[in-house]
Amino acid sequence: MPPAKPSLELLRSLTDEHVLQALICEQRLTRAEIAARTGISKPTVGESVRRLTEAGLLRDTGERTTGRGRIGSYYALAPDLGVALVVGIAPEGVVAEAMDVRGQLVAREHEEVGRPARPEQVAQALRAVAERVLADTGRARLAVVSAADPVDRASGRLVHLPDAPFLVGELSPVEVLASLLAGPVTVDNDVNWAARAERAASGPESLDDFVYLYLGEGLGCAVVADGEVRRGSGGLAGEIAHVLTRGPGGHAVAFTDVFADLRLRQHHSTALDVDRLLSAVDTDGDRADETLAALAEAVCGVISALVAVTDPQLVVVGGAWGTHPAVLQAVSDRAAELPRSVPLRPAQITTQPALSGARAEALRDLRAAISTRRQQPT
Amino acid sequence: MPPAKPSLELLRSLTDEHVLQALICEQRLTRAEIAARTGISKPTVGESVRRLTEAGLLRDTGERTTGRGRIGSYYALAPDLGVALVVGIAPEGVVAEAMDVRGQLVAREHEEVGRPARPEQVAQALRAVAERVLADTGRARLAVVSAADPVDRASGRLVHLPDAPFLVGELSPVEVLASLLAGPVTVDNDVNWAARAERAASGPESLDDFVYLYLGEGLGCAVVADGEVRRGSGGLAGEIAHVLTRGPGGHAVAFTDVFADLRLRQHHSTALDVDRLLSAVDTDGDRADETLAALAEAVCGVISALVAVTDPQLVVVGGAWGTHPAVLQAVSDRAAELPRSVPLRPAQITTQPALSGARAEALRDLRAAISTRRQQPT
DNA sequence: AACTCTAGTCAGGAGTGTTGCCCAAACTGC
DNA sequence: GCAGTTTGGGCAACACTCCTGACTAGAGTT
Fold it and tell me: Looking at the structure, do residues B57 and B19 belong to the same domain, yes or no?
């Protein structure tokens, strides 16, 4: 992209952006503080604050400085800048939250759905919670959706893959939510959101290339390369059910088929029976050891493929049975023998990892939407 | 990254950038033409041209417009803006080229190296060709290196992986070339460069997510996600020798071991014996069919892993035996039966694909280095 | 010879950011 | 209680960039 054409207007909007950015970071500031933070001169900041206040983006909070010196006025972002909608869709139910530009939740609703979930049911629940959450605030400026199924990148629809369990079902969050929104909808897989949350939680240390392996009722994985989740052309990157691995007898079988062989699937479904798996592993005896060894072998086959293709600095393991201590230990031990070994660790974020990643994205997008709005409409 | 601090100087440098950019695209332009192209007003362009000419970045070519109207002066980039060094390192030998900001080769040298290549030999040859190429131009402003071995991302060193053939050997192009350069060195694997060239050749149609599978003496692959080659944390993404696939008897074996089983490796090496492979495939008879089927099965196991992990829109196949018609056909046929099938096609660029990708990068970097140089030193 | 066309320049003006100075108001110390 | 200090804010002057519109120069065209 060529840099923007130089013009005075560009300069001015850049100044406004800096001022808004400062107030996004700091909540409330006087004009002098903004000037000190941004390095922009006081008169310029004063002018920018005047413009932004007139435009309704900033507000004099009424608070005044105390202490030495002349009293100053604190300015802050206007409280009515709109909210972002954060949505989590899982087979158990639907959650919706409204978040303001400060990152504070202004509303939260959830609704459970009986299993197996029918798509119309989920859609209806989704619509309902979103409406309730936005009842007080009006249309949301954007929405970020986490869904427990593969998501088509272009359309945002939940899609079904062969031999993968369809947990939620055919559903288009974009269409369901369209009328409640005044902006874009971002839909992605829950594992991808969890990976983003994990990256954010890793702090300033750069966790730019890693893999988040999700081992639960479904089998999934998120690939983070150069600091971003990579979704592939259709959004289906990381759908590892069909990766060949080493199954019973040393045969090459698809990852998902290992669980059929081990009789760890739910009836009439390709979804894993997690309870059965965990109890099989927890029972003492040779049988449990065999199962553990088979699982570790299969998982490590997948890990070796992930390592070969993406060269991660770390493999994060999440999901109900992947983080089970015995499983994790068995997998780690086996992984250490791989030709290219990679550190393994359980996910750090365990409570609502996907939703927390989606929240962070929603906040970033909402702030960007506010601070980069060039061209104020008269 | 927060946007640059607004200032008058920023505006001016933006104008200069636009002017330089226009002359990078168009070779020679009059001030009026620059104004028309960039949308900047004539007086401003005139001022910018004056500045840049004084700084030595632009030059009045002496050419004048003909036709109706007042004669105008053509300006062009100064001819002494420096060159980029493009280097290709392969087991057969070393190539070096010097390229100017117009993308024209001003010098080219190559030197063959006997096989097996010893690292010191290669380093010496590299140094020699680079010196010869830069003899007339002085230090290069940057270098782009393509190497036929895995490259460590942080250091740019060629590295050895277990069970992968070390074609060139322990070598640090950065150190070898350091004294000939006045800028950064970019080192990457030849397959990655070939993939970039392939992407560039695909034209305006967006080929943003694909996989370049290289099947030659070595086995490699490049992963392009969201328009960029993804190298992984250490630069070893795509080193697929150890991906599990289906070998003889349906057993799960590492990709590279399939060739040991098929006796298609060179003696005392993990490198493939390409000649033997091709003749085995070309001989008519059941034996050839068996070999073909085994190869197709093994390759498709790897492809299914690549597809699962990266979800490419396309798999490009390159390399000496991968593009052999019989092999390609067998692989395509087998790949169509995969649970998630993906189009396959041979590489479009067949002559020096890696070098051509490296050239494009060198040109882009060189132009960026010139056009974004803020702050002209007095 | 007059007209047309075009590259380049000049003059004036609008808009932006900066420096430096001053003022107002609150606290601090005597 | 009073002077000194400290701090946010405002004002004026200046420097700089870009733009518009008019103008000039010089060659081809009629």
Answer: yes
